[in-house]
Design goal:
- By secondary structure, the chain is mainly α.
- It is built from two helices and no strands.
- It is elongated.
- The protein starts with a helix and ends in a 33-residue tail after the last helix.
- 6% of the residues are buried.
């Protein structure tokens, strides 16, 4: 769906450009691609802003948000240690 939307925007901008300015097809095509890219960039920035506002980082809810601290067991940073005994 996203590709179809951006294609429609770029095609519309390409078709309208020569009528407004009386230029050649090459300039109109470049203009259409530029408009499509700007629209796509705007939508991606808007999505990033919405995600930043709506998604909370881990650890800011539950016990930590209420001020309580809890001990959490975490795995050791390295695997199990084996000792070789020599006789």
């Amino acid at each position: 769906m996203g590709t179809a939307l951006f294609n429609t925007v770029a095609t519309t901008a390409t078709a309208a450009y020569p009528r407004d300015r009386g230029t050649d097809v090459t300039s109109a095509t470049v203009h259409g691609f530029g408009v499509g890219l700007l629209v796509a960039t705007g939508i991606m920035l808007l999505a990033a802003l919405v995600a930043t506002v709506l998604l909370r980082p881990r650890g800011t809810h539950g016990a930590q948000a209420s001020g309580r601290t809890e001990r959490v067991r975490r795995p050791a940073p390295y695997g199990p240690t084996y000792v070789t005994l020599t006789a």
